Amino acid sequence: MIARSWHGRVPTSKAEAYHEYLLRTGLADYEATPGNRGVQVLRRTEGETTHYVLITLWESYEAIRAFAGEDYRIARYYPEDDEYLVEREYFVTHYEVLATAPAPDRAP
Length: 108
Fold this sequence. Notes:
Layout: E1 2-11, H1 15-24, H2 26-32, E2 36-46, E3 49-58, H3 61-68, E4 93-96
Antiparallel strand pairs: 1-3, 1-4, 2-3
Helix pairs in contact: 1-2
């Protein structure tokens, strides 16, 4: 399995709207792409800037290419992204997933 990590920054005033936009665009596309194994959306606010990190899981690089294009190292963007993002980061990062573990049962 391959993890694909993308980072973006938006003005904090647009953070909630951007999350809703992500649900309609990227997350919907991930779900519709064969070979996608899930996504985590992380958010951190630092004053007037809110950071998003998306970590998607893929069964193979071929599945990532089906989503991102032949040069899968380049970030994929949508037409309205410029209304939210402070800048476009050109590349994403990929990692081999060596292990995953379910959260331990924390019930008393």
